[in-house]
Structure prediction request, 672 residues.
Amino acid sequence: MTQGSESVRFGKSTTDTVLHRFEQWARETPDGLAVVAGHESFTYEQLDTDANRLAHHLLASGLPPGGLVAIGTTRQAELLIALLAVLKAGGAYTVVDVDAPRTGRLQLAAVEPFALLTRATREAALDNGNGLRVIRLEEQTAAVARQPAGPPGVAASAGPAAVLFTAGAEPRAVPTGHTTLLAAYEGWAEVARPAPEDRHLITAGAALTDFAAGWTRALCSGGTLVLPVISPWKPEDVRTAIDGERVSVLHTDPAGAERLLVRGSKPAPGIPRSRGTLGPDFGALRLLSLTGDRLFLDELDALQSRLRPGVRVLAVYGMAETAGIGTHFELPQLRGPVDEPYGLSLLGVPFPGWGVDVRDGRIRLMPPGGGDAIPTGDLGLLRPDGLLEFRGRIRDRIAVPGGTLDPYPVEAAIRSHPGVGRAAVTAVEDGTGARRLVAYLAPPPGDPIAWDAAAALPDIGGVRDHLAGVVLKAETPRGVIKLRALPRGRAGQEDRTALPLPARHVPEAVARPNKFGGAARAAEGPGGCAFGCMAVVLGFVAMLLTNVLWPGSTDLGGVPNPWAALFFLLYVCEVLTFGAGVLFLINGHRRMKHRKLGRRRTRAAHLAVSYLLLAWWPQDNLYRLAAKHDWPQQALLVYLFNVPLMIAGLIVAAFLARKPDDPFHFDPDEDA
Prediction:
């Protein structure tokens, strides 16, 4: 099934390019503000003049027609001048990742450019050992300043205008022609309706498609592009820039939008939200453009509800092969209420001039002009209402006996649980070598500091009960791992390769806590040697305090040898046990949580063990000072120490006797 969208703009001019659009604004509004980066700013005339001079310098350096120039700098204003200059010189540009040098070297190796434009501070990190020609930006200042300020008058080459990179661990180069780059801008502009008064902020890194192709959305519409002083954007600086620079169009990914807007928890079904009251004001913002990952309808509605009435939230679906453009969705496209927003992700309709083809459940994007359909690697469905529905990713399919399993429907069903914000289902090997389905769960967006691993998120029993009658028994996960958030890649997509393995899969000697809050086993806190040394130090301090707190309790003057030595050894053991108890009180709870026996039960057992270790030092000293027939004091000591010691022992016994939840436990009849 194919769906297309006509554009009233595409096809008007076969010689038009994004560079021509920018130059037109430079001629018509030379004093218009093109770029703001902290205290630095450029008008359209200044940006155009600087790009012209650098273009003349590139031509003087021998840049051939259609030659590829790689640009790597953390100064995005400088980067914009460079890529405009490359286009003016008749070449093609590519932006390499200087924030992740290993990725940058892989990108350079994939394209083999004519030259690399960078700064000396970045040259060594990007050197891939292939003898790449380097033009150092800071050394060319004087030479560039002597070049003519007018355009070089070089026609655009018939080859690509840019080479974009996919955002995976192994970046793939995607040549992008002038026609595609312009069609992507025009399709987006027809939907977003940008104005010269708009100020745009793109949170994506400069090497990602959202910026490497998305700069056109501001500079081809006469708007202003708000940039970080030094890339990449820091999350805390984005909010300041939105308010301080009066940003009206924000381009970000769903996780970035959640950090800015969402501070509450997921409401229970049927409970309405108060709209426009939970998020920041962002008084100038009129459009929030989201790319990088799909959103469920409840997530999109949660973002919309945090913004002022009238602010548009536009979810954009695209890829590097289409310059970041494909389909778009916003809530007004729905024709009526939706029964299950927690399990429905819509990609909407194609951008004007573009098309969508769904065959065998696989989504292909169709560029303007009748080019070949481009497979996205995603699964989808064209609904009767004309909207494209996301149904999962081909690469996430799980091999199971007799075929493959698409985890997306299971994940969507899990998300309908009120305590779950995100879910990912994958297969891992258990201790026997068999592969079992495991669900990785994350809570709804909120305050990450206040997150409690035991709060709200269901355990494996809760997941099974929730999925009963909804998915097949063979598709139900056998284990649950709770995370603070699912890991994401640089482009904002969920990164399943970074999901932590269950505890039993992590070697004891190399285990470390996972930054996403995973269940990977780790020796948290002091190691064995450090623990022992600290216990000795605390025990020595306790021994010094003994005669201060209980004078005479350790007096062995009337005790003959060898009994005096044995009693002294007993005193040493008491104070060492006390030192170990102090350390266990501080550090033991985190170790005991790995048994996953419940928050309250674990805390009670932790306090009980701590008491068992701590109590011997004061108890024994008080007993030695108590008169043999002082019954009130004897009774006080018994009820102050002996009875609590017995209770603590029972609590520990109950804790140890309970079998931990096995993340791979399954019912005997499950495989029947």
Remarks:
- The mean pLDDT is 82.
- The first helix runs from residue 18 to 28.
- Residues 88 and 125 are 28 Å apart (CA to CA).
- The two ends are 39 Å apart (CA to CA).
